[in-house]
From TrEMBL:
UniProt GO cellular component terms: plasma membrane
Taxonomic source organism: Trogon melanurus
Origin: domain of life: Eukaryota
Keywords: Membrane, Transmembrane, Transmembrane helix
Name used for this protein in its record: GTR9 protein
Membrane-spanning intervals of the chain: 6-24, 113-136, 143-165, 171-190
Pfam families per UniProt: Sugar_tr
Membrane topology: Multi-pass membrane protein
Ranges for domain Major facilitator superfamily (MFS) profile: 1-191
Keyword presence, Membrane: yes
Gene Ontology terms describing biological process: D-glucose import; dehydroascorbic acid transport
Length: 191
């Protein structure tokens, strides 16, 4: 029933697409991109409830003043800009390294367990997204990057150890799967 599982993500995307018109625009988008101050305040009240959002509005106005002279680029213009090549190549390298690292294949699991590992990987990615969205404002991106890389290095060392011991102790294969999940969570929170 892999086709049902695969089509489930399309169903979720369709539901999101249907309900998207009923959600308000992002307040920063309304203010910074469209210049709609009233719409920004209305969206703030709709999203965050009634209250005084003068501080948040003032911060967005400061950001608007700072970015006043800069041109907003679309994706093609961004890809043609040589000054962003180092950042783009680093980001591309990180994304590709996770896709091609073969972590799931290294665990030496029975074929019947692999679908559950795939489900666990997806749940790990979801956990990292939710967790990161809560802590990024508290700690900042720099600490999350450093902490994520340090955690990833530690988890990879533990994963390698569990893989070396998996022939002697078959239960270590399941520890390897847990380390793979933790690696994905650390990657999602950090890099």
């Amino acid at each position: 029933m892999w086709n049902v599982l695969l089509s489930f993500s399309g169903l979720v995307a369709l539901i999101q697409l249907l309900f998207l018109p009923f959600f308000p625009e992002s307040p920063p988008y309304l203010l910074l991109q469209k210049g709609d101050k009233a719409g920004c305040l209305k969206a703030m009240k709709k999203i965050w409830g009634e209250g005084n959002y003068k501080t948040e509005f003032d911060d967005m106005m400061k950001e608007k003043a700072i970015t006043k002279g800069t041109k907003i680029m679309n994706v093609l213009e961004l890809l043609k800009e040589p000054s962003v090549y180092p950042q783009l190549s680093t980001m591309l390298l990180l994304l590709l390294s996770l896709q091609f690292c073969g972590l799931s294949a290294t665990a030496k699991l029975q074929e019947s367990i692999i679908p559950y590992v795939s489900l666990g990987v997806a749940i790990s990615e979801l956990i990292s997204i939710i967790f990161c969205s809560y802590i990024i404002d508290r700690f900042g991106r720099r600490i999350l990057l450093w902490g994520g890389y340090l955690l990833m290095a530690l988890i990879l060392a533990l994963l390698e150890t569990s893989l070396l011991l998996s022939d002697r102790f078959p239960w270590m294969r399941y520890c390897s799967v847990i380390f793979i999940f933790l690696f994905i969570i650390a990657y999602g929170i950090g890099p």
